[in-house]
Amino acid sequence: MSPRFAAPSETARPIHVTSPETLKQTLDGLPETARSWVDSQNFSAGPGEILALPGPDGRVVAALAGLGAESARPRHRFALARAASALPGGDWRFDGDLDPDAATEASLGWLLEGYRFDRYKSQEAPKARLVAPEGIDAARVEAMAEGEYLTRDLINTPASDMGPDELEVAARALAERFGAEIEVTTGDALLDANFPLIHTVGRAAPRAPRLIDLRWGDSGPTLTLVGKGVCFDTGGLNLKPGASMGLMKKDMGGAANVLGLAHMLMATGSEIRLRVLIPAVENAVSGNAFRPGDILTSRKGLTVEINNTDAEGRLVLADALALADETPSDLVLSMATLTGAARVAVGPDLAPFYATEDRDAQTLSGAAVHVADPVWRMPFHEPYEAMIEPGIADLDNAPSGGMAGSITAALFLRRFVTETPRYMHFDIYGWCPTPAPGRSKGGALQGARALFQAMPELLAK
């Protein structure tokens, strides 16, 4: 499944984009029979409201699409995406007063509305095709949609078919497509290569842990992406209850998101030197599983007291971030489905992030608006550093008390990025619990489009 716009066509039928404020003006430009039809259907141009317009012979010749009242639009992201599913097959084009940002959002939403996860059950995708509006960068929009399709597919695939080895296969396929180099360190070789935390977390599973290291580009600023690739998380010996295990196939959502972002960057020929690091493991239970109370030594030499084996994501990220920090980049960025605390704080729709530089946070927040990918900055609150210092080791992987869980996890990770001054961390949910226009229920890309939009400015600093 590949999201693509239709070729320009003189026969593409118009979608008249309108709102309650402009509806009368829009209707004045339609034939009388069409106006009568609209009146009979009580069309009010509400957000995402779609009405097909018949011609004299009864065949659909056009459509109306509602934006909703201007004051209500912030509540309805990708409202026009509903047209992709609501309209009959054939080529369509937007007709109306859409500024470049609105036209880009509407076009991206249309492509995203076409996503279907059909690996295990055939699902019919919309047959309506959109001709890209004039003035938008169609290739860029397609790259964003294709990167998001990749992310959704990876997260939606159950752990039976998406373990560390299959995640490696996906990364290798991406590397092959864009001519990137890739190196993978697997199993006990992780110990020889000094990735002790990745090995320790993954050693109890029959599928070997590994570190995936992808490199692309030979000029421009340097960017390192680190994604948590816990392909299933039982919680280890601190076993999760059944209800908490139901969505743990998505615990590799950080890896899926950085691969989606990497796709966008490579597909658009970004002039950067890109590195993608993914510690891919399965947190399982067996006789050699790591234990509460263990004290582990990380790649960076920092010791970590294990107070909960279900706080494993920060452990595997720590070794990967330490590696990234050994060759400082212009920007190091980690993405992970790391804490339930972040979900409680901002819900499933916002992507909470941390940034060591205020300018980077401002740049990202501004860019997010342009690509309908909402983000929210969280603080590296330094007074909480004491909460991750247990006394008998350098760090505590699961501070007691249950407060500020996302912040303390971010502070933990920051301890492993000391040579690179600019670091950003995303604590995402990676899942859309309720279907909405352009966003099917299931695996979700969060923050990656905002980062893609912001990247030229972020890396120009």
Automatic annotation (TrEMBL):
Family as reported in the entry's similarity comment: Belongs to the peptidase M17 family.
Domain of life of the organism encoding this protein: Bacteria
Membrane as UniProt keyword: no
InterPro entries, A to Z: Leucine_aapep/pepB (IPR011356), Macro_dom-like (IPR043472), Peptidase_M17_C (IPR000819), Peptidase_M17_N_1 (IPR048816)
GO MF terms, alphabetically ordered: manganese ion binding; metalloaminopeptidase activity
GO BP field: proteolysis
Protein name per its UniProtKB record: Leucyl aminopeptidase family protein
Membrane spanning stretches: none
Taxonomic source organism: Histidinibacterium aquaticum
One cellular-component annotation, GO: cytoplasm
UniProt domain Cytosol aminopeptidase: residue ranges: 308-315
Entry keywords, A to Z: Aminopeptidase, Hydrolase, Manganese, Protease
CDD domains associated with the record: Peptidase_M17 (cd00433)
